[in-house]
Amino acid sequence: MSAAVTPAVDPDLEKAQEYAAKLLLLSEGSVNKHFDPFEDIDWDNPDFAADAGEERWILPESADTVARHPWYQALSEEQKIAVGKYRQANIAKVGLQFESILISGMVIHNFGLPNGSPEFRYCSHEMIEEHNHTLMFQEMVNRIGLDVPGMGPLVSKFKYLGAPVAAWFPNLFFMAVLAGEEPIDHIQKQILRSGEDVHPIMRGVMAIHVAEEARHISFAHEFLKNHVPEAKPAQKFVLSLAMPLVMWILGRAIVTPPRSFFTEFGIPDEVRKELFFGSKEAKRVFSDYFCDVRALAKDIGLMNPVAKAFWKALGIDGPSTRYRSEPLRAASKVA
Fold this sequence. Notes:
Ribonucleotide Reductase, subunit A
């Protein structure tokens, strides 16, 4: 009697099944734990009024280079509050603009997916959540009552790129998704973990955003882990250089206020440069936003010697994390 032979497992099928299982888990998470900004934030609570406890709009030192700069610290309390309100309102406006671009690209991505694709369901869930985030961010801006622009006039032109990039270069599109999501997620987590007394509007918005954004970032990571290895060597090399460039361009666009912010508050040019470009701290803070992305680049084979040098040339090299959202204090010990 011949010995039983274990049938060979098709590695491609196994990989597809694992990917589908991960996306199903994320989709079920969207069903089982989701938020409605008009039900889960008590907007009409008197304590949520923008002028209630205004000192809570003073920028948190835990996550904002502006708050730690001597220029800001030398301001009167009234001036600190005015700057803080404008900055937080503008960050919310940038967030909703970025998520609108993300939605436009994801719609196009979903349009061409085959029947049965696990990406279709998850992306649909994510777009619903992102639509809610745009409502939430705009309500925050409206409640603060400042006519902030969000992105600067040049950066706002990215709104025309979301759909075509998603259609023709999906790997590049989901890199761009991470370039926008990682810095905002990083900043908001730092504030929430610090325990600093921030305005309840801001705390409520951040808590919802961080909870749901964890799934969105996980999906972008899983998408790239699944699709980048399928690319041809030349395509992977191009992607290895595109990844740090996209992080640098979009990351700057997300975290740097528009020129109107500096004009509004008479911030000197030398202070502006120190805040976001010139000082060692500003460079380190910006680089730290991408610890998880650098780990992903290594994991999917995009951290070759040329790419590594490019990350360094852009000033966004540094340690990578052992697992996603690893606290920076621990991550900094990992080369």
